[in-house]
TrEMBL record:
The lineage of its organism: Bacteria, Pseudomonadati, Pseudomonadota, Gammaproteobacteria, Alteromonadales. This is DUF3718 domain-containing protein. It holds the Pfam family DUF3718. Residues 1-24 form the signal peptide. Keywords: Signal.
């Protein structure tokens, strides 16, 4: 009986240690994603998203809300940086339902863009077509 308890505790401790390390690794893997979006490097962004998906089994919607680029989401950062290629890729990879969901400040991407005078952005056209 004691052996089973010790084994269970060891397995639990190991899994907690591994999940903490995995979260740190994901953060490290996503560290420069804001720079990639601002630079409008669609190829590098696609590689980064594929690497995170294959290594950590996470899709864009799984980590999108946890990333902030100077207080803005990735799509908002793409709009502000006029990064059309990267922004278009992000919009196309996100589920439609997530695109119309309010972000951390309580505003949807469309409401935020309208408020900031970014209605003419090519990314807004793609976003409106998706929703």
């Amino acid at each position: 009986m004691l052996k089973i308890v010790k084994t269970s505790v060891a397995i639990a401790a190991t899994s907690l240690f591994m999940s903490g390390a995995a979260q740190a690794d994901v953060a490290e893997a996503l560290q420069n994603i804001c720079t990639i979006v601002k630079a409008d490097d669609k190829g590098e962004l696609r590689k980064k998203m594929k690497r995170v998906q294959s290594d950590y089994r996470l899709k864009l919607q799984d980590y999108y809300s946890g990333i902030s680029c100077g207080g803005n989401s990735l799509i908002r950062t793409a709009m502000l940086s006029d990064a059309v290629e990267a922004g278009t890729l992000l919009v196309k990879k996100m589920p439609k339902s997530d695109l119309s969901t309010p972000e951390q400040d309580g505003k949807t991407v469309i409401a935020w863009a309208t408020e900031n005078g970014l209605n003419a952005s090519p990314i807004m056209n793609v976003l409106n077509d998706r929703i």
